[in-house]
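Board notes (copied after class):
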Amino acid sequence: MGRGRQKAKAQRQARDIKYYSPATDLSALERELGVRPDPRAQGVEPAETSYDDEEYSDYDELAKKYSSDPEED
């Protein structure tokens, strides 16, 4: 007889957890994750960034190597 009560309690707890939706403080989450606000979302254009060519040279070589279609060779 105790199993029915135990099962009902477990179902009630599961339902409470499933439908529980606390208020989320998104600004606190951003601070915790270290996310900076997106300037485009505020209508401000981001500054142009220049990337060092040496940083991406290895990637460019690999992209050229693997970009060809194997059926064409």
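Comment from the instructor: Residues 9 and 15 are 10 Å apart (CA to CA). Helices lie at 2-18, 26-33, 53-67.
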